[in-house]
Amino acid sequence: MCTVTYVPLSKGFCITSNRDEQVARPKAISPKEYIVNNYSITFPKDQKAGGTWFAKSEKIVLVLLNGAEEKHIPKLSYRKSRGQIVLDLIASPSALESWESILLEEIEPFTIVLYEKNKLYQLRWNEIEKNCIELNTREPYIWSSSTLYSKEIREERAQWFTHFLKITKDITPEKLLHFHQFTENKNTEFGLQINRNNFLKTVSITQVINSLEKNEMFYIDLL
Fold first, then answer.
1. Whether 60 contacts 115, CB under 8 Å
2. Is the pLDDT of residue 185 over 80?
3. Maximum CA pair distance of the chain?
4. What pLDDT is recorded for position 76?
5. Burial status of residue 93 (CB atoms within 10 A of its CB: 0-12, 13-18, 19 or more)
6. Pairing of strands 141-144, 215-221
7. First-residue to last-residue Cα distance in the chain
8. Buried b / exposed e along 191-221 (16+ C-beta atoms within 10 A)
9. 63 CB contacts (<8 Å, ≥6 apart)?
10. Residue 28 phi/psi, 5° resolution?
11. In what order do the strands lie in the sheet with 29-36?
12. What is the dihedral of CA 68, 16, 136, 129, to 10 degrees?
């Protein structure tokens, strides 16, 4: 939910997400299939709030990042968790259509990467308004959470991603997992896998591979 990449493959695409979280937060439940509003949804489950940061159905992939364009000042409480908003959107006939109608007042700012009906979107809520941008499915993208990484750091991480794509032949899901787990691994403050004083860590990596042959989710528990 704090670092996400989308990369087109020769036959499909791969979305990979690093979850940076306080170590004291209850450990997430590894991904499994749930029935939500009569829809079959696969996701790792956040035990504290009951939602998720990464979910897939047969035709939809949806990934959450905390924060919108820039870092915000958190309120003491919110009406609903952002992870539950993820489930509200994906457990519907169309996540994109649900986005157009969903009410987000008193919800903390967030960014969502959505793949639906062979199209890729960036959805954002900044406490004032919703925004939807359609992206080119043939281009790679990286997002870093604005709540944990300044604009300058987000730009630097984007440069690492560009360099990785430039020097890596035949991009595969395995190579993308390696990028997410080991890039700048001595940089515990803002490398791809962080550890800030054993208080805030990259606790897991989730990946979906979607192609004509398969639609699979993989999960690495780093704790």
1. yes
2. yes
3. 47
4. 84
5. exposed
6. unpaired
7. 16
8. bbbbeeeeebbbbbbbbbbbeeeebebeeee
9. 1, 4, 15, 17, 53, 54, 112, 113, 114
10. -70, 155
11. 29-36, 39-45, 54-56, 60-66, 110-116, 119-125, 130-135
12. -20
Residues in contact with 104: Cβ distance below 8 Å, sequence separation at least 6, in sequence order: 85, 125, 130
65: left (phi over 0), alpha (psi -120 to 50) or beta: beta
Say what the pTM is.
0.95
Average pLDDT over residues 67-93: 92
Q: What is the pLDDT of residues 83-125, one digit of tens each?
A: 999 999 999 999 999 999 999 999 999 999 999 999 999 999 9
**pLDDT tens digit string along 196-214?**
999 999 999 999 999 877 8
Place of tokens 């042959």: 213
